[in-house]
Amino acid sequence: MLLAYPWPALPAALVLTLLVSALGFIRTDYFVSLGYGFSIALLAVAFPLAYQPQLDLFTLAQSGLLLAYGLRLSSHLIARERQPSFARELEASKERSRHIKGGLKLVIWVSVAALYVAMYAPALISLSARADGADLSSLPWGLSVAALGLALEALADWQKTQFKKAYPQRFCDTGLFSMVRCPNYFGEMVFWLGIFVSGLSAYASLLDWALALAGLICIQLIMLGSARRLEFKQAERYGDDAEFRGYERRVPILLPLVPLYSLKNLKVYLG
């Protein structure tokens, strides 16, 4: 193998994510948007190539799902920026990040690059364990969950895109959005839970567990923060709409079938 785990694979992974997420120096929000998607995609190509002689169907499928995730997310973000209905949000995002300069940008850059390595860690650990001959019985189970999450997120993003083309000034409450207000965030949470589960039979050290858990916990907290932020944003935009207020009271915010309708008072989250 070209890159043994943990050394030099982890430093190499960090170098790759630092290079890609440096897009954030062009525009700050790229640290956590295009830098995120393209970092995951690059890792999902680079390390399977490094471990290519030891790849099997399931480790290849694991890498394929991560590659599909990263490319789909990045292409969706690029396409979304071209939509007239997103223009106001794009300007607001640029305004929010104007104060992020100098040392703070460096901290964000290194932090998100390290996070992307931790999120990818279950796949890297699985590749290394398979190369050592380990039986990775958790892979098919975790990949099934991850595939479901990816499908949910992709479908939710597509449904909202199509809805906004027809009704740019209205909140989306059709399709998956009739069951949960943030189905795309829910799908992302399910996807990364599946990636974590896929590596369970490969985790063999405290470092393995620390990396995998750090990645999982951080992305779940980020999704909670994203849903909370969207709740405030929608309340500001649609708060005077009686139909929207009824939708808020009727449809759970993040978890389908769980009667949780607001995250405004949430204290533990990221983002």
Automatic annotation (TrEMBL):
InterPro entries assigned to the protein according to its UniProt record, in alphabetical order: UstE-like
TM region positions: 6-26, 33-51, 57-79, 106-127, 139-156, 185-203, 209-227
Secretion signal, residue range per the UniProt entry: none
Record Pfam families: DUF1295 (PF06966)
Single GO cellular component term: membrane
Keywords on record: Membrane, Transmembrane, Transmembrane helix
Transmembrane helix keyword on record: yes
Listed PANTHER family: 3-OXO-5-ALPHA-STEROID 4-DEHYDROGENASE, 3-OXO-5-ALPHA-STEROID 4-DEHYDROGENASE (DUF1295)
Full protein name: DUF1295 domain-containing protein
Species in which this protein is naturally found: Devosia sediminis
